[in-house]
Design a protein that fits this description.
The chain contains twelve helices and seven strands. The protein is an alpha/beta fold. Helix 2 packs across helix 4 and helix 6 runs parallel beside helix 8. Belongs to the 1-acyl-sn-glycerol-3-phosphate acyltransferase family.
Length: about 375
């Protein structure tokens, strides 16, 4: 347990829970009253209020911790991002990857419709999981017998989505660790595949289902490559954000038309594997040069909107909290405040533990690099 991270996270998580409860109450009310009448109207309202909550997370990363994202892509892709439905296919390097896609989505104007595929247990996280459920993110058991039908029905339900959405799929299935990389290298060696150094072998069933289910109304896949400079002192995680430890990430984005992808399941699967081989080579080049070939999109700056929204909700939270405590009798003020702080500290601990990387079973020097 990181005591400093918990202490530092209490103010933000308190605000996040306060805002999240308001958002969740509105979501429940709208789901019960508006969804049965008009899914489109519910989605627009839900997207607007969900964006307010996610903007607080964007503020935490960009303003509180000083997280910097440098985006590299071509001019055509830059112009289309945020204006079309898209499948987002990033490599998975840390617990902040989903949050990173939110920053990208916010910068192109579709944070309110940033969806993702996550493991089922994420749905039990206070506020975070509940809000994602109402936003139609997809929760999986990691059991294909159960997940296949859930994916197909969830994808089909998005055919009438009223605004451009991003559906993020982490096709590696898990975050990159030394243990997982060694397993991937052993598997690649046994199959005669190129030996990866920076990515895992993609699990292609999910992306094949996504392409086949969505290609009729989703025009693009954005192949997103996340690179973390090795020389920086901090690794991007929820804990480093709470502790105000600044770090940088470079992101390379390449757009592919879904109509240009192979028609067969096997062809899509091979296309995905080829993309991850290319990702691995791209990351090797980044490690050697510190940059990508495509020019950086310099117009992407940290969000002023997230700052304004967070300041407004923080003001409401502080004033409301002060009034609430003042209305309590003097004997109950301090015990109530201590109970609230203690409860929030427990929630912070839950979030940190949930996102923490598992302890390595092997040493980094054991990883195969041939």
């Amino acid at each position: 347990m990181e005591f400093s991270g918990i202490v530092g996270g209490i103010p933000f998580i308190s605000l996040f829970i306060f805002t999240g409860i308001l958002v969740n109450l509105i979501q429940v009310s709208c789901y019960l009253t508006i969804w049965p009448v008009s899914k489109s109207t519910f989605r627009r309202i839900n997207g607007a209020i969900t964006e307010l909550l996610w903007l607080e997370v964007v503020w935490l990363m960009e303003w509180w911790s000083g997280f910097e994202v440098k985006v590299h892509t071509d001019a055509k892709t830059s112009q289309l991002m945020g204006k079309e439905h898209a499948i987002i296919m990033p490599n998975h390097v840390s617990d902040s990857d989903t949050l990173l896609t939110w920053i990208l989505a916010q910068r192109v104007g579709c944070l309110r419709s940033a969806l993702t595929i996550v493991k089922k247990t994420t749905g039990y996280l206070p506020v975070f999981g509940w809000t994602n459920w109402f936003s139609e993110s997809i929760f999986l058991d990691r059991n294909w017998a159960k997940d296949e039908s859930k994916l197909k029905s969830s994808f089909e339900a998005l055919s009438d989505y009223p605004t451009p959405f991003w559906m993020t799929i982490f096709v590696e299935g898990t975050r990159l660790t030394a243990d997982k990389l060694l397993e991937a290298q052993s598997f690649a060696s046994s199959k005669g595949y190129p030996i990866p150094k920076n990515v895992l072998i993609p699990k292609t069933k999910g992306i094949v289902t996504a392409v086949q289910s969505l290609r009729s109304f989703v025009p693009a896949i954005y192949d997103v490559t996340i690179a973390i400079p090795k020389q920086q002192p901090f690794f991007p995680t929820l804990l480093t954000f709470l502790k105000m430890q600044p770090c940088k990430v470079a992101v390379h984005i390449k757009r592919y038309s879904t109509k240009d992808l192979p028609e067969s399941d096997q062809g899509i699967a091979q296309w995905c594997r080829n993309r991850f081989i290319a990702k691995d080579e791209l990351l090797e080049t980044f490690a050697a040069t510190g940059t990508f070939d495509e020019e950086e999109i310099t117009g992407f700056r940290r969000s002023t909107k997230s700052l304004i929204v967070t300041l407004i909700f923080a003001s409401i939270f502080l004033v409301g909290g002060w009034i609430f405590l003042q209305r309590l009798s003097s004997g109950w003020q301090y015990p109530t405040l201590a109970t609230i702080i203690g409860s929030v500290a427990i929630v912070v601990h839950i979030f940190i533990e949930f996102t923490k990387m598992p302890p390595p079973k092997i040493k980094a020097t054991q990883i195969c690099t041939q």
